[in-house]
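Table S2 (text version). Query chain:
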Amino acid sequence: MKSFFEGIQWLFEQIIFAIHDILRAVELKPVWGWWAASIFNWAFWIVVCYYIYYWIIQLKEHKDNNEEYQDTTAHSFLK
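Corresponding structure-token output:
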């Protein structure tokens, strides 16, 4: 069981969060490091804002077409 959790630790540290290690190393470069890390962050936020905007537009279209199903009794504890 211990090796299972160590495998999960390795996956996150070496694979999934590797970009954070790269950004940390790039940010410490004297000339262009901070700008490179900041551009990456701004690009990420632009993508996030675009998809939030897209999601809100889709919700509005469904509401305008009366396709939204709002049932407050969807769960038995709300009855």
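Notes on Table S2: Residues 33-64 form the longest helix (32 residues). The radius of gyration is 22 Å.
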